[in-house]
Amino acid sequence: MTNKTALQRRIRVLVIFFMSALALSGLTAVPLQWELKLLMPLVEKISSWGIVFPAMGVWIHRISDGVQNGYGQYPFLAYGTDWLAFGHVAIAVAFIGVFREPIKNIWIVNFGIIACLLVMPWTLIFGAIRGIPFFWQLIDMSFGILGLVPLWLVHRDILRLSGEL
């Protein structure tokens, strides 16, 4: 296998991984009410230990109450998370261009890197405005940081493939 072929293959694998992770993370927002019903017995069990992340248990209880009550009285609120999922899937679809023609579509990778970097200030600003605990903001920011890793590798490999690096 030539170096060019190996780079193309690694780019495609990383792009497929990124697209799948992005779409899957978004799609988990659709069945949020159901997911919380499944999660709560586990949170109850862990909370009874009283040692492991007590603030996390309190926060997840609050989220569950908000979702169950909010969606129960106002099911149209779930429409916001449906659109969140759509945004994730739509952005993932854009990366098909990188999969097919990486050099020509490096701008999509640059867009993704910028979006991942913007997760940090966006989380800190709106997390503070919405009263989200800092430990939860760190979890949210981790998605941007984790997304940066495959995108940086793809960017580097595209530059190598094009002969610019």
Quick structural overview:
The chain is mostly helical. It has helices spanning 3-27, 32-49, 54-73, 78-94, 96-100, 106-130, 134-162. Helix 1 (3-27) runs antiparallel to helix 4 (78-94), helix 1 packs antiparallel against helix 7 and helix 2 (32-49) runs antiparallel to helix 3.
Percent of residues in helices comes to: over 70%
> Could you tell me the strand content as a percent range?
under 5%
Low-confidence stretches: none
What is the average per-residue confidence, as pLDDT, rounded to a whole number? 94
Give the C-alpha Rg. Answer: 19 Å
Biggest beta sheet summary: none
Based on secondary structure, the structural category is mainly alpha
SSE series:
HHHHHHH
Shape: elongated
- Tell me which oligomeric state these chains represent: single chain
Total DSSP helices: 7
Number of strands: 0
Separation of the first and last Cα atoms? 20 Å
